Amino acid sequence: MKLAGISFYPVKSTAGHEVTEAEVQPWGLAGDRRYLITDERGAVLTARQEPRLLACVPVLDGGVLTLTGPHAEPLTVVPTAAMSTVHMGGVAVEVTDCGDAAAAWLSGLAGRPVRLKWLDDPTRRPVNPLYGRPDDRVSLADAFPLLLTTTASLARLNDWIAETALELGEEPRALPMRRFRPNVVIDGVAEPFAEDEWKRLRIGEVEFRVTKGCDRCVLTTVDTETYRKGKEPLRTLARHRKREGKVWFGINLIPDLVPGTFGRIAQGDPVVLL
Q1: Domains in the chain: ranges and CATH
Q2: What is the mean pLDDT of residues 99-128?
């Protein structure tokens, strides 16, 4: 098995970037989901509610974030000193406001008042203690530092989607991996969904613990080109991958790093189960 793809998402629920190598930090890939968007009430806003957020392409250069999109000129983000609180998974997290200019830029894209927030200190948010250790941390991802998927599982899912479409007289359409927004994609897995049983693995020089499978939401149904919601993959996952009232695709990881240390991964790195 080998590492076939690496992606990170500077702003939660906006466009991501595929890279050939990345630094792995205890709370996730460097630059991954350190920013998020809140609505007029201060609640976290995602592309589940506003799919047009996926049209925002955030670019990180030397730690400086620039927002690009189809509706306005690029904007360089300048965080302020103002702090506020967002709630994620029942945990209150202190974040820094990124100013009125960023708020206006994103509000123009979303079509409603929103603000951009920055997690200036990534050690601030703990992982759910049911699945992690006391010193485990996560940035602004939904729950865990990294999400892993495999090409074998996507191929099987796309076969199932084609079967469903033919049964219903619809045009089959394979889904790209970016619908699932993984951080790492593994190739060469012998069986689809073999990752369901993994407990520990090493990618290149970095070891990871598997916490749990990833239950999927309506965001996976949003076409990343048209920003319209469809029925897949949730319709087909519900036929083949439903348990505990949820549907599943991919697994969540926590890097097994000594506090204060980092690692690196690169495309082509060997993947070894431990």
Answers
A1: 2-273 (2.40.33.20)
A2: 97
